[in-house]
Amino acid sequence: MSLATPSKTATETIFDNLGGEIKDAFDKFGSVLAQSLSDVAQITVQTKDSNNNILYTTIVTVDGGVSNVFQVTKPDANDAYWTRHNAAVDQAVQNRNQMMLRVIDTVGGVVKIIPV
Questions:
Q1: pTM
Q2: Which DSSP string do the residues of the chain spell out, in sequence order?
Q3: Tell me, what's the pLDDT at 29?
């Protein structure tokens, strides 16, 4: 008695025929995704003076942690460099959030085409 072999879906057949190319593409996609996540895991913003000396450094981690490093003393809230630095930090965080959303959307789109 022989067992019947279940027939393959059209998607499975396509994956079988293009298996190497698709596997390579998914491997490359995985590498790009890993690098993208690594790139946004921590952002560092530095503000320098006109002599290229670092005045302020802010490190923002993916979990929202913020660390400020001052080369001298903590600046006055009205300091022009400090105000500009904080604006740059806010922009960097917004950019990172947008990038993370695009990565999530991309992954979601890829997961939809993977046969189950």
A1: 0.63
A2: --PPPPPPPHHHHHHHHTHHHHHHHHHHHHHHHHHHHHHHHEEEEEEE-TTS-EEEEEEEETTS-EEEEESSSPPPTT-HHHHHHHHHHHHHHHHHHHHHHHHHHHHHHHHHHS--
A3: 74
